[in-house]
Amino acid sequence: MSVDAVALTEAAKGAGSVDALNELAAVKDLAAQDKLVHNKFLSIGLFRQLTDDAVLAVVEGCPKLQSLSVAACVKLTDKSIMAVGRSCPELRELVIAKCLRLSDASLATVAVAKNCVNLEVVDVSGCIEVTMDAVNDAAKMFPGIDIQT
User: Fold this and answer.
1) pLDDT band at residue 107, thresholds of 50, 70 and 90?
2) pLDDT confidence band for 24 (50 / 70 / 90)
3) Are 94 and 121 in contact (CB under 8 A)?
4) Residue 4 pLDDT level (bands cut at 50, 70, 90)
5) Rounded CA gap, 25 and 65, in Å?
């Protein structure tokens, strides 16, 4: 993990003391400078004010991501997860736990994403808009993906 990714992860842990504009600016700035392009693992969970625009900037700048956690980023919508599905062909693990605005569409998008052929684990625990029907359907269609609830 690069120094910048470590700094970003550390900033995320203290997200309660960092205002939303600083969080968003930090994420977008690192992505814009191509400082995340070689990262395979990135945890930007707990950035409670993180938006879809910031996630779009990050995933478009991180084509080698194998593991992404945006857990508890409560402002994210299905738009973010659709971008992950399009932009992260090497993704193996996606943690979207406690992202309260994500719906069944997020799970379906990632599970059927032609780009995410290596996907092994998707954690949707605490995603209150993701139904068990969607989890069961995805598990049947893609038995190689461990969908955690």
Assistant:
1) confident
2) low
3) yes
4) very low
5) 21
- Rounded to 10°, the helix 78-87/104-112 angle is 0
Reported as half-sphere exposure (CB side, CA atoms, 13 A), residue 133 has a value of: 4
Q: Cβ-count burial of 28 within 10 angstroms (0-12 exposed, 13-18 middle, 19+ buried)?
A: middle
What contacts 24+ positions apart, CB below 8 Å, involve 18-22? 19/49, 20/48, 20/49
pLDDT number for residue 46: 81
Q: What is the pLDDT of residue 22?
A: 63
pTM: 0.81
Order across the sheet with 121-123: list the strands.
41-43, 67-69, 93-95, 121-123, 146-148
Helices of type H across 88-142? 104-112, 132-141
φ and ψ at residue 69, rounded to 5 degrees: -120, 125
* Residue 74 near residue 48 (C-beta atoms within 8 A): yes
Domains of the chain, CATH where assigned: 3-148 (3.80.10.10)
